[in-house]
Amino acid sequence: xxxxxxxxxxxxxxxxxxxxxxxxxxxxxxxxxxxxxxxxxxxxxxxxxxxxxxxxxxxxxxxxxxxxxxxxxxxxxxxxxxxxxxxxxxxxxxxxxxxxxxxxxxxxxxxxxxxxxxxxxxxxxxxxxxxxxxxxxxxxxxxxxxxxxxxxxxxxxxxxxxxxxxxxxxxxxxxxxxxxxxxxxxxxxxxxxxxxxxxxxxxxxxxxxxxxxxxxxxxxxxxxxxxxxxxxxxxxxxxxxxxxxxxxxxxxxxxxxxxxxxxxxxxxxxxxxxxxxxxxxxxxxxxxxxxxxxxxxxxxxxxxxxxxxxxxxxxxxxxxxxxxxxxxxxxxxxxxxxxxxxxxxxxxxxxxxxxxxxxxxxxxxxxxxxxxxxxxxxxxxxxxxxxxxxxxxxxxxxxxxxxxxxxxxxxxxxxxxxxxxxxxxxxxxxxxxxxxxxxxxxxxxxxxxxx
Length: 451
Description:
By secondary structure, the protein is an alpha+beta fold. It has helices spanning 4-54, 64-75, 150-186, 188-198, 218-265, 269-300, 311-328, 347-363, 417-427; strands at 92-97, 102-105, 119-125, 128-137, 142-149, 307-310, 332-337, 342-345, 370-378, 381-388, 431-436, 442-449. The chain is 53% helix and 18% strand.
């Protein structure tokens, strides 16, 4: 793709050129008409001047030979002592009496066989075109005609128009050059920004240096800084995921290796069976850790798009899905909720939240105990409580709940369940709290905004 300068300059230059030429053509057309009108006015003026001179004495006393010589001498620009101008016209005169008798004709005047009508007119005589004006003097009974050759007039007009057009044709390339330089000066901040980006180290994700910028470039810098911040967050999340996975999976994998070695070196079937059982439990724990790590990664990368959901319906469905787990451990699941409590959320995230909360409560409960879920709307918030009848949590460990890799004493846990729950609650714009129940048991309470 072409550079911004070319993309802006090319249409600008074309527009300036064609616009200027169009204006010049219109100006030349109007100038041509105005110049023609000026020369016609000079013909009329010359005819009136001749009329005024001839009215100074009676008609019968006028020496027409003298008048013709005087006129020819005045129109002869090459004569010595005659003031001349390059744009003056070469006038010729003819004068007739009232009965059509020719009284006087300039040396270069055309021979008109028939009288003309009064006014301004153009005509072709032989191969020569003439412009002229006929003035009737009713006082002396004269018909005065003043004219000039059309080709000489057009030559003069063309010279005038050429001199008018020449500065425009000379200035247009200069104007294009100035536009090019000014555009380069205007784009210099963008070039500096591009140079700043090119000179940055390969892995540098720091925001662009703040400084004065044109108004048009400030949104671009803000957008770049926002993108760099997002990339930095994404890379940091990936590094944290890799570090968490390496940290948490290192020990289970080492234990799996030990159990596999013990199974191979077992001396009796009972020892081999015991080692294989430990190996199976280790594989299950590593699988849970990997699943929860992936859940956290997906939640951290979520776009945050929420939609209106019926929380009661979703919780009821999750309890139905978790019923086999509770029945296997002889735990009763109870739901106490208002109908149609609406929240803004994402179904998958709420499903993960409930699976972790119910799963934790079931794991810490004894056979025959109860795990209950209470959902109530309190003013503009929804209160969701998961209650169990387990042993609870040591008071000094309550403040660490929700932190990554902090397990509450479950040897098969990864310490990620409540961290995932806290992350989901934060994305939903809610709050989470933990407390022990009296006389025994544990309560996880979520406060979510009403949808």
